[in-house]
Amino acid sequence: MLERVAPALVALGVLLCATHDAAAQPAAEQANDPAHSAPQSPTRSPAAPAPVYPQGYPPPGYPPAGYPPAGYPPPGYPPPGYPPPGYYYPPPPHAVKAPRPPPKKRPPPARTGVQLALRTGLSIPLGDASGAPRDEQRERYSVQVPFVFDIGAKFWPNVYIGGYLGFGVGAEGANERVEELCDDNDGNTENDIECSAYTLRIGVEARYYFSPDATLDPWLSYGIGYEAATQSIDDRPQNRAEETTAGGIEFARLGVGFDWRASRVFGLGPLVEIAAGQYTHTRTEVNGVETFDGPIDDRALHGWATIGFRGVFFP
What is the CATH number of the domain that holds 204? Predict the structure, then answer.
């Protein structure tokens, strides 16, 4: 029985092997055919597995002696101008911007309120004291040094209104007779006759400021008031002291100048003033006793030209 079945089983195994080989051959040919192969990316290759380094890598003595070779890097490397400016941080010194200059000091703001001032300079007499012959202003009074105090208020930043009180002092005028009396010609060191002149004035004044919020603030002013000028001769040998005072209205006192506003509290600046008036009344005293007091009939126009400076508080 076994002898009959064995040949049949062998024949069946051979048949199965032949059938398997016939089925595998077309599939292998199809896989090797480019027309039937799956499309692949022309630029991307399968990622290589990360290398696994054994323990103790790199080996001792790595890199080898003589590495890098002599002359590496080559001369002239890197090329001139490389890297470009600003490539690294921080930038090179020549690329650093210069610091900004400090801001300019701003002038004090314009203000209103109380304002005080003191002005001085040199006042030159002009015109005629009266209509009498040779009664010029300079014959009575010489150049004087005035001191005028102002007090008032700025009701608006541009407009000041206030009053003034002034005193001017000087020597006798250019009259030949008065000069002869006042000169010391007796040869000793004591002046036997003392001569002087002084002026008092009081009035109101308005001033207009053109740039009340600037450092340099130009202005124009107009004032009107009363003026009294006095000549004094003290003859000690004769025990005689004589004073003659002429007074009248100073109807125009024009001024121009500017204030350098150094701060909110103080300012300083030059000025030029022209004053015009007329003496209307005169009085004479001898040794304190009034000898004449009356109006001036023959009146004339006189004036004072002043150049100087003023200091102002709260400009």
Answer: 2.40.160.20
User: Structural domain tally of the chain?
Assistant: 1
Distance in angstroms between the alpha carbons of the first and the last residue of the chain: 145
CA 222 to chain centre: 30
Q: How confident is the model at residue 41 (pLDDT cuts 50, 70, 90)?
A: very low
From CA 163, how far away is CA 310, in angstroms rounded?
A: 15
Poorest-pLDDT segment among 20-29, 77-86, 280-289: 20-29
pTM: 0.65
Query: How far apart are the C-alpha atoms of 205 and 253, rounded to whole Å?
Result: 8
Name residue, tokens 């005080």.
116
In tens, the pLDDT along 18-32 reads 555 555 555 445 545
- Token readout for 129 is 């004291």
- How far, CA to CA in Å, does 201 sit from each of 115, 223, 248, 251? 20, 11, 10, 12
Q: Give me the count of residues in the chain.
A: 315
Determine which of 32-41, 66-75, 163-172, 296-305 has the lowest per-residue pLDDT on average: 32-41
pLDDT at residue number 314: 94
Residue at 94 is within a domain: no
Domain that holds residue 288: 113-313
User: What is d(CA 229, CA 198) in angstroms, rounded to the nearest whole number?
Assistant: 6
Q: Which residue has tokens 């002013």?
A: 221
